[in-house]
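Late entry, written up from scratch paper. The run itself happened at the end of the previous shift, but nothing got recorded in the book at the time, so transcribing now.
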Amino acid sequence: MTAQVRFPRFFVTSPAPCPYLPGRNERKVFTELKGPHADSLNDALGRIGFRRSQTVAYRPSCLDCNACVSVRVVAEEFMPSGTQKRTLKANADLVVTICRPWSTSEQFDLLQRYLSVRHPEGGMTSMDETDFADMVEHTPVTSYVIEYREPSADGVTPGRLIGACLTDRQCDGLSMIYSFYDPHHDARAGLGNFIILDHIRRAREMGLPYVYLGYWVEGSARMQYKVRYRPMEKLGRAGWERISADEQDRLIAAAAANPRSRADTGGTGCKDGMPAIANR
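Output as recorded:
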């Protein structure tokens, strides 16, 4: 006898102001991740452009816009640029630790400093420590927090935490759910880029072909950093396709010509990867 297949139920949020493109509204379709098959469901949904937020998988479902494009780095073919090589070298002494998905006050304090500079008007600034614990710990899938610390003076006690990333392990890659870092550390330029580069290296060492970076939005200055990693694939109507070298050259040049300033916090929405899904 064939076992009965249970398909997830999907819901749609009410329209809300788009956090990336002024004057537009966004809408999301989402479903709950739960039960013994949550990992496999998250894997399947991730391959068609869904992202995870706590126990929910979601993707944009806007009526008149398709600007949000899922992107992933092909880890096994990645070749760092000159700037990325310098970023790797400058941060090579950081102590990187894979931790279980359990929040700490040290992580929360770092997140607050990050949000105060990079997303001061975003919805996450109102989070308290309990909200942060929910964000990290309420996961039905295989996930962990990767911490980035400076070397300690004695080499024994943990050094200062300057970066962290909540990461899911999927069957075909690592999905970066949310990363944050010390925005005031002038001696550690490119910390956010280093965290991505470390995930690419880690995925390759684990034999995983991809690093999922979430959604890229052309025209949103906050999202342009994602196009700097080669080779990259984007999800279209026909499935995942490689972004051509010429197109990526154009996108990188456009990003360089319009760098994201610290004042560019964009609207009232949350950073990519952690939406507030409240209205069903």
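The mean pLDDT is 89.
(Scratch paper discarded after transcription.)
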